[in-house]
Design brief:
Organism: Amycolatopsis pithecellobii
Low-confidence stretches: 105-112
Strand order of the largest sheet: 1-2-4-3
Protein name: DUF4387 family protein
InterPro entries: DUF4387
Number of domains: 1
Number of helices: 5
Order of helices and strands: HEEHHEEHH
Oligomer: single chain
Pfam families: DUF4387
Amino acid sequence: MPETTLADLAHEVRSKNAGPFWVTMEVFLRDADGYRIAADESFLNERVIAELYRVEESTIQIFRIPSLNVVKISFPRPLSQGSLRDRDTHAGQHHVPLARMPITTLADRADR
């Protein structure tokens, strides 16, 4: 049986520019149960994002919006938008590692 991922709990997981120097990702959860999992700081936190995206943990901003079942994450782009090595000008593919995160059980999280 395939692992359940964050994308399985969401209507949409997307990423986009937040200006030429920042990326924003948004996770729109299907319901309050999915939101409780995604918004849980033991599951999704600055350390996890820093590891996924190889960015400095102190630069990551996470916004949890329970009234909308949304988690929003922002961090500095690794390369400025449109620079010579920028392969995703609109930051439209940055969400993929986040969407593929496996959902762990509470018991699994307690073991960490």
